[in-house]
Design a protein that fits this description.
By secondary structure, this protein is mainly beta. 0% of the residues lie in helices and 39% in strands. The two termini are 18 Å apart.
Length: 76
């Protein structure tokens, strides 16, 4: 998805995954793929357990990505 695309063009996708932190006492979950859906909903795909979870916006404190694997790229 290019930087010019808007939310109306489709979901924003983190193909390299991210950590999802919750507003309640749940443990942090590491998703293999994360999509930001309309209304702030989060769709997370967990490859190892063959699961897909959709979280409401009020359940998610934050979604955090890791960039270390990209820091050696020329464009970084």
């Amino acid at each position: 998805m290019s930087a010019r695309q808007t939310h109306e063009d489709g979901p924003s996708i983190l193909t390299d995954g991210a950590e999802i932190h919750f507003t309640d006492e749940r443990d942090v979950k590491r998703a293999d793929r994360v999509e930001f859906l309309r209304g702030g909903w989060i769709k997370a795909i967990y490859k190892e357990s063959y699961q897909l979870e959709v979280y409401p916006p009020d359940a998610v404190q934050g979604v955090y990505t890791h960039t270390k694997h990209l820091e050696d790229e020329d464009w970084w």
